[in-house]
Specification:
The chain contains 7 helices and 2 strands. The chain is mostly helical and 145 residues long.
Length: 145
């Protein structure tokens, strides 16, 4: 009974997960690029074209925004996941092995969360969904293809 109820709302739960995750990720990029929400780490903005900070900020803002909107969700999530894996292994992991010790919890979590979205897709309320869902004329519900 409860499993059927939860399954009925699966696509909307994935959509909420996608929107919140994308918004949090895009906020990091917006903060660093535009100095809002506290700005870049240390305050202010990152300088244009500076490796890797500016590029990381653009990757946070653009794919994060695409994930929020449900546009090219799987590709954007794959890029975001890869960027966070790169950040973890180049910035955090050399300091210590465990994320709790090296300050890499956010990078590790974003990496795995976006990887999950690569496999689950965008959920409900996404333009991407219309390409992968066929509507059954009898049930009125979409079925993944």
């Amino acid at each position: 009974m409860i499993t059927r109820l939860l399954a009925r709302h699966h696509a909307h739960a994935v959509a909420a997960f996608r929107i919140v995750t994308g918004l949090l990720f895009a906020s990091h990029g917006a903060a660093s690029l535009f100095g809002i929400l506290g700005g870049a780490p240390g305050g202010g903005t990152v300088a244009f074209g500076v490796w890797p900070d500016w590029y990381a900020s653009v990757i946070e803002l653009v794919p994060g925004s695409l994930v929020v909107l449900g546009l090219a969700t799987r590709a954007a999530a794959l890029l975001a996941s890869g960027s966070m894996a790169y950040a973890y292994f180049t910035v955090h992991q050399p300091r210590a092995w465990w994320p709790l010790e090296n300050g890499g919890e956010a990078a590790a979590m974003f990496c795995w969360v976006f990887l999950l979205l690569v496999f689950t897709g965008p959920g409900a309320l996404a333009p991407d969904r219309s390409r992968f869902v066929r509507t059954s004329p009898n049930s009125g519900e979409g079925q993944a293809t």
